[in-house]
């Protein structure tokens, strides 16, 4: 799959070297670099070298190096606690419309640094879960 680029995209510009970045790992299909607005020390981004706004629009081959790179970065950071984050769409907190994965160290329990997550658990019955599973299985 040929790489796709969008001239106006800030992350495509970083891939092309038109905007500087503090690079960490580069392969044929991904680039990783330090986030300019870190939530904690070592907050890094991994971006595919293909312009797609959201994950479901990205060809699979551009995903192959993402998790191995996230693991590499976590090891290099010596981070015992960390989050991987990938936002899709504005109300899901996506600000840059080029698929990207965050590696965000979580410094200490109770510390306000790092990713702060709301986890509003919804109550579903077993029947509702089963119905949902059946619906999804017809599409997977
Ligand atoms: P999102 O909210 O879209 O998931 O995250 C976008 C991330 O990209 C933010 O954490 C933001 O700090 C980072 N970011 C935006 N512009 C730049 C840039 O020009 N350089 C770097 N290194 N990071 C950027
Ligand atoms: Zn782009």
From TrEMBL:
InterPro entries: HINT, Histidine_triad_CS, Histidine_triad_HIT, HIT-like, HIT-like_sf
Motif Histidine triad motif: chain residues: 98-102
Residue ranges constituting the HIT domain according to the UniProt record: 10-114
Active site: 100
Single GO MF annotation: catalytic activity
Cross-referenced PROSITE patterns: HIT_1 (PS00892), HIT_2 (PS51084)
Signal peptide: none
GO biological process, one term: nucleotide metabolic process
Highest taxon listed in the record's lineage: Eukaryota
Protein name per its UniProtKB record: HIT-like protein
The organism's taxonomic lineage, starting at the top: Eukaryota, Fungi, Dikarya, Basidiomycota, Agaricomycotina
């Amino acid at each position: 799959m040929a790489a796709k680029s969008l001239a106006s995209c800030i992350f495509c510009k970083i891939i092309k070297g038109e905007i500087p970045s503090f690079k960490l790992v580069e392969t044929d299909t991904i680039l990783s670099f330090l986030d300019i607005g870190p939530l904690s020390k070592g907050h890094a981004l991994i971006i595919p070298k293909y312009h797609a706004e959201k994950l479901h629009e990205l060809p699979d081959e551009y995903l192959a190096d993402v998790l191995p790179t996230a693991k590499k970065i976590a090891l290099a950071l010596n981070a015992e606690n960390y989050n991987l984050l990938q936002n899709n769409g504005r109300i899901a907190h996506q600000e840059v419309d080029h698929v990207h994965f965050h590696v965000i160290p979580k410094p200490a329990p109770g510390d306000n640094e790092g990713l702060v997550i709301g986890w509003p658990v919804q109550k579903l019955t077993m029947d509702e879960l089963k119905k949902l599973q059946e619906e999804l299985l017809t599409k997977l």
